[in-house]
C-alpha cells in the first residue's frame, strides 16, 4: 500500500514577518552610525607595555568563543535544511530559501563595505580603536615575519594579530547572518497549516506548531546568547593589558557596550518570535470558539479544560521559560562583564 504524505504549507504572506527583524537590524545600524561615537579617544598609555604576553589571554578567549559559536551556528542551518527536505509545498520551500539568502546578504553587506574601504569604521572602534589595536599589536602570529607573508587567512598585514581579528570578525558575521536567517525562517515555518474541517485535526496541528515554536525559541536564544558571549570575548581582549588603575573605568565602557549589544540581540529575537506567537494564539482562540459552537452532548464545553487537554494552554512555567529565553542575551552581557573567566 502506498502511503501519501501531505505537503506542509505556510501562507506566503507570513514571510513578511522577516521584515520585522530586518527593521531591527536597520535601526541598530542607524543608532550605531549616528548616536554612538565612531572612535573614542581612549589613550594608549593605559596599557601595560611591560607585559605584552598578557595579550594571549584575550586571544585564547576570543578564539575559543569563535570556535564554539561558529560550530553552534551550523546547527540552525542544518535543522532548516532537514526541514526543507521533507514534503513541503514548492512555493513555501522556495520563499524560505530566498528569505535566508536575503538576510545573509544583508549581513554580508557591511563586511564587503569594510573590506572595500580599509579606513571604514569597525565595530570595535566604539571601545577606542587606538588602544584596541595597540593592545593586539603586542602579540605575534607564527609565520608572519612581514606584512606580505601569507598565512592561514591571507596576507599578514602590518599588524598580524589585528589582521587575524578583522578576518575572524568578517567570517563570524557571515556565519551569524546565515544562522539568523535560518532561525527566522524556522520560526515562520511554525505557522504551517493544513486544510481540514475537523476540529481535532486542526487542534493536533496547532499543538505541533506550539511545540515547534518553543523549540525554535530556545534554539534561537541559545544561538544569540552564545553570540553575545562571542561579542564579549573580543570586547574583553585588551582588558588583561589595561593598568589596574584604569581597568575599572575601561571595564565600565566594555560592560556598557556589551549591554547595548545584548539588548539588540534580545530585540532581534523578540522581533521574529512575537509575531508568530500572536498568530498562533489567535488561531487557538478561533478554534476554541469553533469547538464551543459545535454540538455538545451533556455539559457545556469548558474552554480552558479543552485547551489543556489538547496541549494548547500555556502555563506560568511556559511564560517564565519564554521570558528567560528572550532576555538571555542581555543577561549574558552582564555575565560577560562581571565574570573573570567569561568569554
Question: What features would you highlight for this structure?
Answer:
343 residues, mainly alpha, elongated
What does the main sheet amount to? 2 strands, antiparallel
Helix count from the secondary structure assignment: 9
Percent helix: 55-70%
Mean residue pLDDT: 88
What would you call the shape? elongated
Return the domain count: 1
Output the radius of gyration: 24 Å
Low-confidence stretches: 337-343
Task: For the record, give the distance between the C-alpha atoms at the N and C termini, rounded to a whole number.
Answer: 56 Å
Q: What portion of the residues fall into strands of 2 or more residues?
A: under 5%
Instruction: Return the string of H and E elements.
Output: HHHHEEHHHHH
Structural class: mainly alpha
How many DSSP-defined strands?
2
Major sheet: order of its strands?
A: 1-2
Describe the protein:
- The chain has one domain.
- By secondary structure, the protein is mainly α.
- The protein has a two-stranded antiparallel ribbon.
- It is built from nine helices and two strands; from the N terminus they run ααααββααααα.
- It is elongated and about 80 Å long.
- Helix 3 runs antiparallel to helix 5.
Task: Describe the secondary-structure layout.
Layout: H1 19-34, H2 55-85, H3 90-116, H4 129-136, E1 150-151, E2 154-155, H5 160-188, H6 199-235, H7 247-293, H8 303-309, H9 316-338
Antiparallel strand pairs: 1-2
Question: Short description, anyone?
Answer:
Helix content is 66%, strand content 1%. The protein is mostly helical and 343 residues long. It has one domain (34-292, 300-338).
Amino acid at each position: 500500500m502506498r502511503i501519501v504524505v501531505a505537503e506542509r504549507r505556510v501562507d506566503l504572506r507570513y514571510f513578511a514577518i522577516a521584515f520585522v527583524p530586518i527593521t531591527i537590524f536597520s535601526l541598530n545600524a542607524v543608532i550605531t552610525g549616528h548616536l554612538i561615537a565612531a572612535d573614542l579617544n581612549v589613550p594608549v598609555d593605559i596599557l601595560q607595555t611591560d607585559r605584552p604576553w598578557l595579550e594571549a589571554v584575550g586571544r585564547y578567549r576570543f578564539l575559543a568563543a569563535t570556535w564554539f559559536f561558529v560550530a553552534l551556528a551550523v546547527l540552525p542551518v542544518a535543522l532548516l535544511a532537514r526541514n526543507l527536505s521533507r514534503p513541503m509545498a514548492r512555493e513555501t520551500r522556495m520563499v524560505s530559501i530566498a528569505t535566508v539568502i536575503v538576510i545573509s546578504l544583508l549581513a554580508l553587506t557591511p563586511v564587503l563595505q569594510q573590506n572595500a574601504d580599509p579606513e571604514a569604521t569597525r565595530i570595535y572602534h566604539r571601545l577606542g580603536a587606538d588602544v584596541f589595536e595597540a593592545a593586539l599589536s603586542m602579540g605575534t602570529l607564527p609565520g608572519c615575519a612581514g606584512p606580505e607573508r601569507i598565512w592561514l587567512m591571507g596576507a599578514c598585514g602590518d599588524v598580524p594579530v589585528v589582521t587575524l581579528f578583522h578576518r575572524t570578525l568578517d567570517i563570524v558575521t557571515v556565519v551569524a547572518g546565515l544562522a539568523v536567517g535560518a532561525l527566522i525562517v524556522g520560526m515562520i515555518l511554525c505557522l504551517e497549516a493544513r486544510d481540514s474541517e475537523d476540529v481535532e485535526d486542526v487542534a493536533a496541528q496547532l499543538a505541533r506548531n506550539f511545540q515547534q515554536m518553543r523549540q525554535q525559541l530556545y534554539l534561537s536564544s541559545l544561538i544569540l546568547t552564545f553570540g553575545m558571549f562571542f561579542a564579549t570575548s573580543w570586547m574583553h581582549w585588551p582588558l588583561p593589558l589595561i593598568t589596574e588603575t584604569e581597568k575599572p573605568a575601561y571595564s565600565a565602557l566594555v560592560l556598557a557596550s556589551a549591554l547595548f549589544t545584548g539588548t539588540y540581540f534580545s530585540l532581534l529575537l523578540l522581533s521574529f518570535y512575537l509575531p508568530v506567537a500572536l498568530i498562533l494564539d489567535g488561531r487557538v482562540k478561533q478554534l476554541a470558539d469553533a469547538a464551543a459552537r459545535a454540538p455538545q452532548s451533556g455539559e457545556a464545553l469548558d474552554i480552558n479544560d479543552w485547551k489543556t487537554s489538547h496541549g494548547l494552554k500555556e502555563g506560568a512555567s511556559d511564560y517564565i521559560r519564554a521570558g528567560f529565553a528572550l532576555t538571555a542575551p542581555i543577561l549574558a552581557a552582564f555575565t560577560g562583564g562581571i565574570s573573570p573567566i567569561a568569554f
